[in-house]
C-alpha cells in the first residue's frame, strides 16, 4: 500500500517518506486523506472503515524503484484489492507483511487466514484480495511490509508461483528472516536509501529459506542442509493444501517425486509426524478464526470442512483434546473475553 508523494512529508534524509493522520486537519477527514492516497498508489487498494472519526494511521515508506518497504501503524479498517485496482497497477508481484502487533484477516482465492504478531503473510498482488486490518479489541495494527515486483522474483520460481495468500508463523519463522524484519522495522526511519535497499535484498534472499524454495545441490551444501530445505518446501506445500481433505503423505510425495516413506522420515527427524503436523495446523487455523474479532461468517461445521476435516466427529474430538473444550464452547468463550 504505497502512498502518493503528495500525501507524505519529508522525514530525515528526505527519501524515507512519512504519512501521519495527525498532520491532516479533521475538516478533510484523516481517513479520507488516507483512503485517497492508497487508492491512487501504484499498487492501489480500496479502503473502508466504520470508525472514520476515530481513525489514525502512520506510514513510513521508502520507494526502491518498483519495489518498496513500509512500516504501517493503523487502527481498524478493511482493504480490498479488486480486479479494477489490479488493472490500474503499474506493476505486479508479491506483497510480504510481517506482523509486529495486532491482527490481520486475509482472504485471497480459496484461502482465508487470521495472522497475528510474529506471522508472515505472503500474497499475490495480481489476484483479488481482502484484508481486515486490526479489530475493535486491538490497540493498534503494526506491521512491516514490502512489495517484491516480479522482476525481483526471477530465479525463485517456488515463491513466484504463490497465487493464494499464505501465512507462515511459529517454528516456520525461526532463523534470520524475522530478525531482519524486526531490525528493519526499528531502523527504517533513520536509514538511507542504500541501507534500505540492502535490507530489502536481504529479506528477499531469505524468503526461500522459510518457504522451502532453496534446494541446494550436493556439492553446495551438506546432506543435512538439503534435507532442511526439502522439509521447508514440503511444509509450504502442505500449508497451501490444508483445506484438501485428501492431503496425505503419499499425496505430498507424488508432488515432489519422492516416496511417502521419505516424507515420514523428514518429519520424524524434526521430532514430529506428518499426521500430527497436519492436524495441529488445521486446528490452529480454525482456533484463530473462532477467535477472530471480525466474527464467524459460517457454521463451525462448515469452518471445519473448509480446513480439510471431512468427518466432524473426528474434528470435534481432536479440537477438544487440543483445547480442552468443544469448538462451540471455545467460540462462546472468545465472544465473552
Describe this protein's structure.
The protein has 337 residues and is an alpha+beta fold. The protein folds into three domains: 5-211, Jelly Rolls, CATH 2.60.120.10; 223-272; 276-335, Arc Repressor Mutant, subunit A. It has twelve helices and 13 strands. Strand 8 and strand 9 (111-115) form a beta hairpin. Helix 4 runs antiparallel to helix 5 (193-211) and helix 7 crosses helix 8. Mean pLDDT is 80; it is low at 1-14 and 214-222.
Write the layout of secondary structure elements.
Layout: E1 9-11, E2 16-20, H1 30-39, E3 46-48, E4 57-64, E5 67-74, E6 77-81, H2 83-87, E7 93-101, E8 104-108, E9 111-115, E10 120-124, E11 129-133, E12 141-149, H3 157-160, E13 166-168, H4 176-187, H5 193-211, H6 223-240, H7 249-256, H8 260-269, H9 274-291, H10 300-306, H11 312-323, H12 327-335
Antiparallel strand pairs: 1-2, 2-4, 3-6, 4-5, 5-12, 6-11, 7-10, 7-12, 8-9, 8-11, 10-13
Helix pairs in contact: 4-5, 7-8
Amino acid at each position: 500500500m504505497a502512498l502518493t508523494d503528495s500525501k507524505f512529508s519529508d522525514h530525515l534524509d528526505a527519501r524515507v517518506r512519512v504519512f501521519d493522520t495527525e498532520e491532516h486537519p479533521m475538516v478533510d477527514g484523516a481517513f479520507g486523506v488516507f483512503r485517497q492516497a492508497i487508492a491512487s498508489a501504484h499498487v492501489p487498494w480500496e479502503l473502508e472503515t466504520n470508525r472514520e472519526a476515530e481513525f489514525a494511521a502512520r506510514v513510513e515508506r521508502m520507494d526502491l524503484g518498483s519495489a518498496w518497504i513500509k512500516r504501517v501503524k493503523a487502527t481498524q479498517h478493511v482493504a480490498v484489492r479488486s480486479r479494477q485496482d489490479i488493472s490500474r497497477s503499474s506493476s505486479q508481484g508479491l506483497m510480504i507483511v510481517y506482523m509486529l502487533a495486532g491482527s490481520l484477516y486475509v482472504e485471497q482465492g480459496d484461502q482465508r487466514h487470521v495472522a497475528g504478531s510474529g506471522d508472515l503473510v505472503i500474497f499475490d498482488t495480481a489476484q483479488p484480495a481482502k484484508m481486515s486490518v486490526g479489530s475493535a479489541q486491538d490497540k493498534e495494527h503494526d506491521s512491516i511490509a514490502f512489495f517484491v515486483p516480479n522482476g525481483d522474483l526471477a530465479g525463485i520460481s517456488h515463491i513466484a508461483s504463490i497465487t493464494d495468500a499464505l501465512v507462515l508463523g511459529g517454528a516456520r519463522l525461526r532463523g534470520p528472516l524475522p530478525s531482519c524484519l524486526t531490525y528493519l522495522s526499528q531502523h527504517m526511519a533513520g536509514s538511507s536509501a542504500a541501507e534500505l535497499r540492502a535490507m530489502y535484498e536481504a529479506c528477499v534472499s531469505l524468503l526461500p529459506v522459510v518457504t522451502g524454495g532453496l534446494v541446494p545441490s550436493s556439492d553446495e551444501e551438506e546432506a543435512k542442509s538439503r534435507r532442511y530445505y526439502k522439509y521447508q518446501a514440503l511444509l509450504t506445500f502442505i500449508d497451501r493444501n490444508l483445506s484438501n481433505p485428501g492431503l496425505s503423505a503419499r499425496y505430498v510425495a507424488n508432488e515432489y517425486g519422492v516416496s511417502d516413506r521419505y516424507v515420514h522420515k523428514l518429519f520424524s527427524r524434526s521430532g514430529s509426524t506428518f499426521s500430527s503436523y497436519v492436524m495441529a495446523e488445521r486446528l490452529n487455523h480454525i482456533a484463530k478464526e473462532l477467535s477472530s474479532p471480525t466474527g464467524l461468517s459460517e457454521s463451525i461445521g462448515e469452518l471445519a470442512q473448509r480446513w480439510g476435516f471431512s468427518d466432524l466427529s473426528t474434528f470435534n474430538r481432536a479440537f477438544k483434546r487440543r483445547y480442552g473444550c468443544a469448538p462451540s464452547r471455545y467460540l462462546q468463550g472468545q465472544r465473552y473475553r
